[in-house]
Design brief:
Layout lengths: L17 H17 L3 H25 L11 H24 L27 H9 L17 H12 L3 H21 L3 H29 L6 H19 L5 H14 L13 H16 L12 E2 L10 E6 L7 H14 L4 E6 L5 E7 L21 H8 L5 E6 L5 E5 L7 E5 L5 H14 L3 E5 L15 E4 L5 H23 L9 E5 L2 H15 L10 H11 L5 E6 L19 E5 L3 H8 L14 E6 L4 E5 L11 H23 L20 H5 L22 H7 L12 H4 L28 H7 L9 H10 L7 E3 L2 E3 L2 H14 L1
Helix pairs in contact: 1-2, 2-3, 8-9, 13-18, 14-15, 14-16
């Protein structure tokens, strides 16, 4: 079957809208075809004409029906205002999508394609006051009244405080539920905690990007205009998408195209740091413009040019000067001071007034040149160097070669006249011992007699045993040191007597070394306190003899070289020794030592802790830095090995000098007092040979009996038994007198033989506290201070006693006690 044909559509009724509708429709379509824009353009034209008629009617009503001559201009003025409105609207739209500020001046130096930096307008008074208003106010200690809150805020606060209705219960329940939820969340399962950790990790990863986006958006005013316009276009497209659903495809297309165009501009969205010309230029120009007398409308670019980075080494500030600027020194200093006070760094200007424009070019002030290093003496002076030996050979009778100065010139000082005696204050490691040994070399070349008083026992060790050198280096024999000082004073007195009476005019030199004078003063003071009798002075009189030698020694060639750790006059029996040493040597010192010895008025040279580096200072203030000669150091040897090698070479050198230059005892009159035999310390005397933990018995003897020397010494009379084996170890034994024999095996003494005469030291060694005899020091003190002490037998100048005398004396003393 075929379907019935569809009925044709009915014809429209021509009379449905009436003839008036047809006429209006015809007129509308005819006008729309003529007016640009079609129906919309015709509608806009009708609205414009209606607005003009409305304005005309308003003017008529305002004139109370009276026509004025200007009424005919009203439509044209309205048309002009309408066109102005359209122009302003178009300009605003253009500025909006062009990326420019919608109102006000530009807030940065950005251009259409490049990013910029913010502009601070210091020449605008309004901007200046606004910046001051935005600063943080100062904290005031007085309580400032708060601004009164508005009425609605006060009413709301009062209602919340006094509300007691059903809502209060709901609010309380809500708060309780919130707190319960919080507690439950704290007790959440591990899954929740893991989720929280994942969220936190995600935030840590996303946060830097979010902060970067926030910083970029915060610098919106510094973006290029093109980037700002594209962002605004994207926002507009999405707004249209929300308002017009039919255009949902277009915003997406516009966004993609805008983002594609924005891609090349992304690196420029990060604002650049403002250059120094932007930061300092406007502020500096406000002051300079006033100082140079320029008008306010003068552009800064024509007069002042700052570099983008003032810190660059080649940075220059170019300032153009007006023709009326005279350029006096005061004006130049004023501009220079302004630049140095407002700009970082220190600037110096060069003014030029020749040519078409006067200019001032400022550059960085060059840093001050470091002072030239002070000349220094040579690092070392070798005593074996041929140059040193040549200088020694050319010295005069009183000349001493001390070393090289800061210009590497030899320093030669006479030990005569005012500088007859020298004082040394040299700290540890300053080369004091080497310097004294170097002076001894030259003293031997001058045929001199040398007296060494050294309680330290180490500084002048190489001189021991040299002919004409008398050593007093036993700190346990202070009487020997006092005796030799008294002997020197007597020699001085005898020489002065001969010179006074014309018996002799010249004398060979006599040199006295007072090493460790401070310690020597303590030792002599202790001995004097032990020996003095009732009524004697508490001050040691020997220092008066020393002062006499220092004052009168220059006339008869007697010299003292004293070494001090601390030159204090109150330590030397009240005798002022410091002024008697006009020439002083200081080395390895500190600031306090320098001020104490030289005073604060003498300028202190730089401190140098170096062996042999010394300062030769006179009381007049003259100072000379020197490097004294000493034996070179062998880096392949240890410190002890170097010292032993130096001592060996010096000892051989001393013997050679004495043999070459000779020696005479003329002018000494009699030999100096002989030093006492040095005894071992009490600890060594009291120590048993057989119980010594350090192995004084030696090792196993190697004999068939396996006996040691100690065991043998207890069993028989001798260390080596008669039937034993003599071994190298037994031969090397060093016996202390009295330990090799037992009392039972002593040789029988002849009863008719006279008693043996011994020194107090020997008696103290043989007898001890078990026999009622005190130590040697006490024996000497009692002999000096007690009148009832046994009288000695003097043989060859030595005081000798018998054991029975001493035993009997102390037995009586013990009974008296």
């Amino acid at each position: 079957m075929t379907a019935a044909p569809a009925a044709p559509p009915s014809e429209p009724d021509a009379q449905e809208g009436g003839w008036l509708s047809d006429v209006l429709s015809f007129l509308w379509h005819a006008a729309a075809s003529v007016v640009p824009g079609g129906g919309l353009g015709l509608l806009g034209l009708l609205l414009f004409l209606g607005w003009m008629l409305d304005e005309s009617s308003k003017r008529k009503k305002a004139g109370a029906g009276a026509r004025t001559p200007r009424d005919w201009k009203a439509p044209f003025l309205a048309a002009w205002n309408f066109c102005t409105f359209l122009a302003r609207t178009a300009r605003a739209v253009g500025r909006f999508y062009g990326g420019r500020e919608l109102r006000g001046q530009a807030r940065s130096t950005a251009t259409f394609w490049t990013a910029g930096t913010r502009i601070t307008r210091t020449d605008d008074q309004d901007a200046v006051m606004a910046s001051v208003a935005l600063t943080v106010p100062r904290v005031s200690l007085t309580k400032q009244p708060r601004r009164k809150p508005r009425a609605w805020a006060r009413n709301a606060a009062s209602w919340l405080r006094t509300y007691q209705g059903w809502g209060a219960t709901a609010l309380d329940s809500t708060l309780s539920a919130f707190l319960w939820t919080t507690r439950m969340a704290d007790k959440a399962s591990s899954l929740d905690r893991a989720l929280w950790r994942h969220l936190l990790a995600t935030y840590i990863k996303v946060a830097p990007g979010a902060r970067a986006i926030a910083r970029a958006l915060g610098n919106w005013s510094c973006w290029p205009y093109a980037a700002r316009g594209l962002v605004r276009l994207i926002v507009t497209a999405h707004a249209v998408f929300l308002l017009v659903p039919a255009a949902k495809g277009w915003p997406l297309l516009v966004s993609l195209l805008a983002l594609a165009a924005l891609g090349p501009l992304l690196p420029k969205l990060v604002p650049t740091q403002p250059g120094d010309d932007v930061v300092y230029g406007p502020k500096l120009w406000v002051v300079l413009r006033h100082d140079l007398g320029l008008s306010d409308d003068e552009p800064r670019e024509n007069w002042l040019q700052l570099p983008e980075r003032l810190a660059d080494q080649d940075a220059r500030i170019l300032l153009r000067l007006p023709w009326t600027y005279r350029g006096s020194d005061m004006e130049k200093e004023s501009i220079t001071a302004l630049l140095n006070s407002r700009l970082p760094g220190e600037w110096t200007g060069r003014f030029s007034f020749r040519g078409e424009h006067a200019t001032a070019v400022y550059t960085h002030k060059p840093p001050p040149r470091p002072p030239a290093p002070a000349p220094e003496p040579p690092a070392a002076v070798n005593i074996w160097d041929p140059r040193t030996q040549e200088i020694l050979a050319s010295l005069g009778p009183d000349d001493f070669y001390l070393g090289q100065d800061t210009f590497d010139r030899p320093v030669i000082q006479k030990m005569a006249d005012e500088q007859n005696s020298w004082a040394l204050s040299i700290g540890s490691g300053g080369g004091k011992s080497a310097f004294l040994q170097w002076l001894a070399v030259q003293m031997l070349m001058k045929h001199g007699t040398i007296v060494v008083i050294d309680p330290k026992m180490v500084s002048l060790t190489p001189l021991i045993g040299i002919e004409g050198v008398h050593d007093y280096i036993n700190p346990r024999a202070p009487l020997d040191m006092r005796a030799v000082l008294i002997w020197v004073a007597e020699v001085l007195d005898a020489r002065n007597f001969e010179k006074k009476h014309g018996l002799r005019t010249s004398f060979p030199p006599l040199y006295v070394f007072l090493e460790e004078s401070n310690h020597l003063a303590d030792v002599l003071k202790e001995q004097h306190s032990a020996d003095k009798k009732t009524g004697d002075s508490a001050a040691d009189p020997v220092w008066r003899d020393v002062a006499s030698i220092l004052r009168l020694g220059r006339e008869v060639n007697v010299h003292i070289i004293a070494v001090f750790q601390d030159l204090k006059d109150n330590q030397f029996g009240g005798v002022s020794l410091s002024p008697l040493f006009p020439l002083k040597f200081l080395g390895s010192y500190n600031e306090n030592q320098w001020k104490r010895i030289m005073g604060s008025r003498t300028e202190m040279p730089a401190i140098q802790k170096k062996a042999g580096r010394m300062v030769l200072a006179l009381d007049t203030g003259d100072i000379t830095r020197i490097q004294t000669p000493y034996a070179p150091w062998n880096p392949e040897l240890t410190k002890d090995q170097n010292q032993q090698e130096a001592y060996r070479l010096l000892t051989a050198y001393y013997k050679e000098l004495r043999t070459t230059h000779g020696y005479t005892t003329e002018g000494l009159y009699q030999a100096p007092p002989e030093a006492s035999e040095e005894q071992p310390p009490a600890f060594i005397l009291a120590q048993s040979r057989d119980s010594a933990p350090e192995g004084r018995n030696g090792g196993l003897e190697g004999g068939t009996e396996g006996e040691t020397a100690g065991r043998a010494s207890r069993d028989d009379a001798y260390v080596t038994p008669l039937d034993g084996h003599v071994t190298p170890a037994r031969d090397r034994l060093r016996l202390i007198p009295g330990q090799g024999q037992s009392s039972g095996q002593e040789a029988a003494q002849d009863p008719t033989a006279p008693p043996e005469l011994l020194t107090l030291a020997e008696i103290s060694r043989r007898l001890g506290p078990a026999d009622g005899v005190p130590k040697y020091d006490t024996l000497r003190a009692n002999k000096t201070r007690r009148d009832d002490f046994p009288q000695p037998t003097i043989i060859n100048g030595k005081e000798l006693f018998t054991e029975s005398q001493i035993k009997a004396y102390y037995t009586v003393q013990e009974k008296k006690a």
